[in-house]
Amino acid sequence: MKKSFLPLMLCVVGLAILSLLPQFLTSYYVGLMVLVLIFGIFALSLDLLLGHCGLPSLGHAASFGTGAYVAGILSLKVANNFPLNFTAALLAGGAIAAIFGLLVLRTRGIYFLMITLALSQVLWGLAFKWKSATGGDDGMPGVPRPNLGFLGWDLTQVNSYYYFTLILFVLACVLMFFLIRSPFGHSLRGIRESESRMMALGYNVWAHQYVAFILAGLFAGLAGLLYVYYNNMISPRELHLVTSAKVLLMVILGGTGTFLGPILGAAVIVLLENLVSGFTERWTLVLGIIYVVVIILAPRGLLGPLRGKLRRWIPM
Amino acid sequence: MNLWILQALNGLSFGMLLFLLAAGLSLTFGLMNIVNLAHGSYYLVGAYVGLTVVARTGNFVLAVLAGAISVGILGLLMQRFLLRRLEDHLAQVLLTIGFMFILGDLSLWFWGGVPQVIPKPPPFDGTMSLGDATFPSYRLLVIAVGIVVAVFLWWIQDRTAMGANVRASVDDGEMAGSIGINVSMLMTVVFGLGAALAAMSGVLGGGALTIVPGADMEVLLLALVVVIIGGLGSLKGAFVAALAVGLLDNFGKALFPELSLFTIFAPMAIILAIRPTGLFGRA
Amino acid sequence: MDPDVAPLRVEGVSKNFGGLQALMGVSLTLQEGERRAIIGPNGAGKTTFFHLISGILLPSSGQIHLFGQDVTSKPPHRRAALGLARTFQINNLFPNLTVLDNIVLSVQARQKSKFSLFKPMTSYRHVYAKAEGFMEQWDLADKGQTLVRNLSYGDQRVLEVVMALAQEPKLLLLDEPTGGLSPAETATVTAMFKQLPADITVLLIEHDMDVAFAMADRVTVFYVGQVLVEGSPSEVRDNAKVQEIYLGSPV
Questions:
Q1: For residues B178 and C199, what is the distance between their CA atoms, to the nearest angstrom?
Q2: Is residue C160 part of a domain?
Q3: Which of B200, B205, B280, C73 could cross-link with B231 by S-S, CB 3.0 to 4.6 Å?
Q4: For residue A182, which residues of chain C lie inside 8 Å, CB to CB?
Q5: Do chains A and B touch (3 or more CB pairs under 8 A)?
Q6: Alpha-carbon distance A20 to A28, whole Å?
Q7: What is the pLDDT of residues A1-47, one digit of tens each?
Q8: Domain housing C230
Q9: pLDDT tens-digit map of B183-196
């Protein structure tokens, strides 16, 4: 197999562009790019489940929101100790996935979708009602940016926070890419195609799905903590069905299993939301219409037609 | 003791509302293998339509009919022209998410975000006394309507030709088609019926609970919990689970206001652990 | 031979689905290296029997032993670990993966590398070498990069068998391997069969009686969920009861 340097070069060019963006964009747009990167991680994490494992989760906000809440609450109520809060938030995202995974992995397909939705909404309800712990529907404002003083880095400026997020984004992408290229990733795709065949070959299908579920939760927790630090505010919206549905749309719009697709989908939805919200209050209506249009007209996503070509470099 | 009876009656009436909602969800799944996530939106739109009709005409019965019929037709059209274009069941469910957003936002646009209530129709706008406790008689109306609808649905399912056709189509759609049952039209009709029931639940609910944006997702969650516990595709399961969830939710709110959702979460988790297809669901 | 290490020992196995009794008191033991065919009319319970052996279904009663181990309630992947492989009556492949990737997954199943989370799959050269070897052996080499859903039915049926062979099993279950194949394709599969290593034990469900009798040392006849007759091909062919169920009356 001839090794092509083209994909690597494209990645380097892409990274260069992303690194130079703050030089050319106003702080408003840099802020938007931060959101693109954050939701890019979030969408990639869902794609691990949906695109690579065939598990359609409509409750992925559970891990995202839990990561956000844990990071936010620790920063506000305990201490702005970044290494501690980072680790705790990540693990919290994974822990919620570990707990929910035990229940949801007894189902598949539409049942799975329904149950992930229900469990995640219950979690939302908990955050919404438990005013004393979570601030209820008002949430908790005033979450400070991570204290990276020990590195000499001030994250209160949007450009700094952008680079901080970019580093973690690249790290997440690299890890995710290795994961989907690994034998484990290969096995997940086999499971997506035929669980019974994988079992007959000798794979413990449940164990693979459970691990994938937890890994997806860890990455979503990362996205959640980056989000809460960016927003300087915790709110139950991060746990809500709307968030789960939005990230699901991002993955489908971009193209499931294509690695670049979810990131592209995240960019499109984040930018559209901001654009549309600028001149109308009817963003939710627009989101619903996009949903209907994408599912009926372009279910394989924007990168769908390129799947054949992408397959050479990206396992899918 | 009277307090418990009060809470139980409250829970039962809420349960009946949930049954009207869940019945449609369950029937739709049984026949079409999809879960309509816009079901909560049908509830909300029905409630708003009912609200408008009562405001214009003062006639509660008309409001219920208007809500049920208008949303029923809406559901029918959605199924016939959009859902039916897709083969994949998962894709159909995703489509209903889009509907949920569209209907939710359109309702907000049309009727605004101020919480509203439908005025209770006389003679049910008063209270009845049970011992020393007073109880809104409206809730009894809701319970009565729920029972009537439950019996009516059971009668359709078990005693009519249409019910037999539905049961045949659920069992084996291809066979049913080959013996002359118009399965496709049946699906559209059942879908519309489910929507109408949800809207009815909305109008009735509007008399006791506030109609407000966000109610659609709140009732959707409860309806999903009901079908998860009761089992998809089973009317009996929807009835039993709806009453159980109604009671649990009510007692939960009364006893642990901050953690009330746990009283629903616990039985749902237990069912998922022991019998994932629900109490009376198809395996 | 010591019955405790028979590749397959099924004792008094029954399976009912609600009211339907699919299998009743079926017993069957295979010797190492044996080629056994199971024949019988549709609905006789043959594929259900395979599902019980491979673990997709659990028996209502009875026991199943693989290589001396009681696997009656063990999940399919544990049985595969003991050396069991099977094909499916309806092709059960990975449609959106390439032929090569399909076989790689089969080969990888027995490797420790399958637990790796971070090293690229492609770095495990020995897995790919083995997979490519199987493709060469069974004439699929030029279709390695083809997606399985784009393969012809005949090639898919061949791949279905190759997937099982790539597991390097000690006990192989073939469920109607020639189903739906043209005479030429049937001949290919029969040839594949003849090339199987002598120490693999094979249990085969076949609809085509000529193929079954040609490939098997012994034949078991299933009828309405029970074992009707068991013997050598000629014994079974001459058996009056067998002729009756296939032809409707004694010949």
A1: 50
A2: no
A3: B280
A4: 116-121
A5: yes
A6: 15
A7: 456 788 888 889 999 999 999 999 999 999 999 999 999 999 999 99
A8: 3-92+168-247
A9: 888 889 999 999 99
